[in-house]
What does this fold into?
Amino acid sequence: MLPEFKIKKYIQELCRPWKLITLLMAVTYYIGGAYYYQCPTWDVPISIIMSFLTYLFAPWTVDSIFYLIKFKPKNWILKICLCLIVVYSVASGSYELYNYWNLGYWPPPTYWVNLYYSTLIFFAAGMLWRFKGSFRELIKDVYDDFRKKVEFLKRPHF
It folds into this structure.
């Protein structure tokens, strides 16, 4: 059992303006990096492919992993493994397939570096984009949590 998934609601969440703006910022950043670093395995098409795949799959995957760890339904470890296959497919599999098609050999020379950084970015993006609400609500929640932590730290702890 995974968390309830309704495609229409999921698409509505992905279409929130703040999420689309952050996606556009990410794509712009990666395209800029492709031009700046001139890495043979990092170009404009792979920047776009990986950004959009991350946008589509990261929120659901991270949400599912949180759900599985919290509720531990039957076969939860197997289901986490399935989620990790999604992570690998997006964060590295798409990169590998694209570069095999583009360069003609596998693995690309930057395989391990890409696997490490793309996986971290996938989880970070998933944690950000899994938030269900407006940008104003996100900022309010972050501020409230920060304020609670500061108040906790101010109390004497003996």
User: Anything to note?
Assistant: The chain has a mean pLDDT of 95. The chain has six helices and no strands. Residues 7-133 form one domain. The chain has one domain: 7-133.
